[in-house]
């Protein structure tokens, strides 16, 4: 009987040893030692196409050369006078975008009315759930060219850059080009932006 008990204890010890040696090897697909050493995994960033179509209405504009910083490169120190001042312009509107759905938008920027150059522009897209995507934009408004629709008053095809965000857009980066214009058909500016956005995987 004693011999049987000793044999059973021996077998139980071997089984326990095997179980322990296996359990500390893997945690899911990751070795347990690595999981404990590495801690929380770093977020994986992915870059995907981005497109936004929206309109902006002009809600305010006034002469303010101080806010626009005449020495900023966008202004190029072009001539400014009472007929062609530097304006601070405020716009609000709405549209739709990939990874956003319906959104509202707000933008403020400076414009040199002598040359059409604009800058110091900062804006935000706000998704329906409140997540925000921040961006900058700069360039020059130009007159319509041959081949443009007859209703164009002016247009601008310039770079834009994503500068961050909140919610699923926290830490977002990206860039692209605008296609924007004013028209005789209404009193809002029209915008179609394309490019890419880089987000944490799973948030897009």
What does this structure look like?
The chain folds into 2 domains: 2-38; 45-200, Porin, CATH 2.40.160. It has an 8-stranded antiparallel beta barrel with strand order 1-2-3-4-5-7-8-9. It is 16% helix and 49% strand. With 204 residues, it is of the alpha+beta class. The chain is globular and about 60 Å long. It is built from 3 helices and 9 strands, in the order ααβαββββββββ.
Structural class label: alpha+beta
Per DSSP E runs of 2 or more residues, the count of β-strands stands at: 9
Task: Name the overall outline.
Answer: globular
Percentage of β-strand residues: over 45%
What's the CATH C level of the largest domain?
A: Mainly Beta
The CATH architecture designation of the largest domain is: Beta Barrel
Helix content: 10-25%
Q: Count structural domains.
A: 2
What is CATH's topology name of the largest domain? Porin
Low-confidence runs of at least 5 consecutive residues: 21-33
- Average of per-residue pLDDT values: 81
| Count of alpha and pi helical runs | 3
Q: What does the largest sheet look like? A: 8 strands, antiparallel, barrel
Spatial sequence of strands, sheet with the most strands? 1-2-3-4-5-7-8-9
Helices and strands, in N-to-C order? HHEHEEEEEEEE
Q: What distance separates the N and C termini? A: 67 Å
Specify Rg, calculated over alpha carbons. Answer: 29 Å
In a nutshell, what does this entry contain?
It contains 3 helices and 9 strands.
Task: Describe the SSE topology.
Layout: H1 2-23, H2 32-38, E1 45-63, H3 65-68, E2 86-97, E3 101-112, E4 117-127, E5 132-140, E6 152-156, E7 159-165, E8 173-183, E9 188-200
Antiparallel strand pairs: 1-2, 1-9, 2-3, 3-4, 4-5, 5-7, 6-8, 7-8, 8-9
């Amino acid at each position: 009987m004693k011999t049987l008990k000793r044999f059973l204890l021996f077998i139980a010890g071997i089984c326990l040893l095997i179980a322990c040696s296996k359990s500390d090897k893997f945690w899911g697909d990751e070795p347990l030692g690595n999981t404990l050493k590495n801690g929380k995994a770093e977020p994986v960033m992915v870059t995907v196409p981005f497109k936004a179509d929206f309109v902006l209405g002009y809600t305010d504009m006034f002469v303010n050369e101080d806010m626009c910083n005449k020495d900023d490169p966008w202004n190029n120190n072009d001539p400014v006078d009472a007929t062609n001042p530097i304006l601070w312009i405020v716009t609000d509107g709405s549209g739709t975008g990939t990874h956003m759905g319906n959104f509202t938008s707000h933008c403020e920027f400076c414009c040199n009315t002598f040359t059409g150059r604009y800058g110091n522009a900062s804006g935000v897209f706000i998704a329906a759930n409140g997540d925000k995507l921040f961006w900058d934009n700069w360039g020059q408004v130009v007159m319509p060219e041959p081949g443009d629709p007859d209703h164009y008053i002016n247009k601008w095809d310039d770079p834009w850059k994503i500068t961050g965000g909140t919610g699923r857009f926290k830490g977002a980066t990206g860039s692209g080009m605008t296609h924007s214009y004013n028209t005789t058909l209404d009193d809002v500016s029209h915008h179609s932006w394309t490019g890419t956005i880089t987000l944490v995987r799973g948030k897009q």
